[in-house]
Known about the structure:
Layout (H helix, E strand, L loop, with lengths): L4 H5 L10 E3 L4 H8 L9 E4 L15 E4 L6 E5 L4 E5 L4 H10 L2 E3 L10 H6 L18 E7 L5 E5 L3 H7 L8 E11 L3 E8 L1 H13 L3 E7 L4 E8 L10 H24 L3 H23 L2 E2 L17 E8 L3 H19 L7 E6 L15 E8 L5 H14 L3 E2 L9 H22 L8 H7 L1
Helix pairs in contact: 6-9, 7-8, 9-10
The protein binds flavin-adenine dinucleotide.
The site of flavin-adenine dinucleotide has 34 residues, from β2, α4 and β9.
Amino acid sequence: MKSHGFRDTGRTDRRPALPGVHTPTSLAHLMRCLDSNANIAAPLRPRGAGSSATDCNVATMGTVISTIGLDRIIRIDTYNHAVTVEAGVRLGTLIAALADEDLELIGNFDQTERTIGGAIASPCMGPGIGSQASMLSTQVLSMKAVTAAGKIMKITNTQKHLLSAFRLSYGMLGVIFEVTLRVRQMATFSASHRSLDIDTFAQVSDRLATGNIGLKFYLMPHRNHVYLDLRHYETATGNAYSAPWKIKDWGESTVLPNVFKSLSRVLPIPSVRYRLIDSISATTHDLVNSRLVRSGNNATAGGRHRRRTPRNLLYSTWCFPASDFSLVVKAYAQFCRDNFERTAYRCDLPALGVRVAKDNTALLSPSFDEPVIALQTVSTQQRGWDDFVLDLSEFAENWGGTPVFNQTLAARDDCVSQIYSERLEFFKKIRRQLDPGGRFLNPYLARYFK
Ligand SMILES: Cc1cc2nc3c(=O)[nH]c(=O)nc-3n(C[C@H](O)[C@H](O)[C@H](O)COP(=O)(O)OP(=O)(O)OC[C@H]3O[C@@H](n4cnc5c(N)ncnc54)[C@H](O)[C@@H]3O)c2cc1C
């Protein structure tokens, strides 16, 4: 009698696992996706809104686990000021639901299309006022994740080390499916605006970097200009109308990028084009920031409630010690101008900076030891961007910049191991325990975390 192959060998042949995207809509569904017996191609990469700049949320030959189907707000606890949500809930959806209960997130975050899972598994930094309000991950009280072994894991704030590893874990320790965050009563802040040249900004930046204020700024190196947005609770405040913030957000993140992209097609002469681009940027910031927006709260100042990440935008973020920023900002402006002269490439949008308070609640926090200024270089100009990013990386490294794994392009391995040092080793140890087979490591993350 002819025997079947699998009887001879004890093995069954499987169809090769196919790469693809899975969008679970329930915990049971997510667990099926992560089951080690499921015919799903590794590596597995969780993805929220996909707004990161690096390949941290990509699995070309593997499987993306998109969390956007896990979108329930489970409980808003108005008494204890806490909210429990599934990981795929959009920031904007949560902000609106909290506002209905006169509550808000602790910290001010725009890009409201990002997901809660993405915003706590990677840095979500904003100009929050005070020492605890710069990153959303700080507010995590507990979370539930499904590990590489397909098991549910609950992490609470009694497991301090584990929770600090899971915050900003970039999806390497498990897929987070539920999060409980600390929130607070809605409070109105006042926003004041100044426009200054870079030298003057450098002179006051030490004071700004250590003050109890929310600091955001737009830096135009080629026009030698900085637009400051300073937020504080101390003074008498007006009404926190949302319309001006929506217009501001629309101007900054939709109108300017689209106009600049079009201008690069119709105005081929760089000197003319960039003069116009800088004038439009300056006028928009003068009008929108300085005149329109005077007060807000963490709900209104999040901008419009979008569903999609703006396209066209290229960005790379480096975090610099706040204590050195008076020097760094001048050097950065000089670097941009020199680079333009040498390569004819420059970014068309202002760089965006926010002050991030010292925060050691996450093992991979970019401000673990001291406050930092997160400087996001932004452009719509694709041609020349890759080379620019390499030069920027060299510049940032020389000035003590810290890369973040989902927003910093072209960070060298040596720089990463030097900056994150023992914390990186500790994180790797936890990662290897939870995912010995490296199911969650794609080639990009393996470079830094193997
Ligand atoms: C125009 C623009 C402006 C931006 N501005 C800012 C800014 O001001 N401040 C700032 O900090 N960032 C900013 N970012 C960067 C980015 O939006 C944030 O880092 C954001 O928090 C990522 O959220 P996401 O849902 O898009 O996550 P994704 O990009 O989808 O994922 C980010 C990381 O988290 C992991 N992840 C996602 N969901 C889960 C989950 N459920 N479980 C486990 N791991 C998960 C992914 O694997 C990946 O490693 C900006 C991006 C753009 C495009």
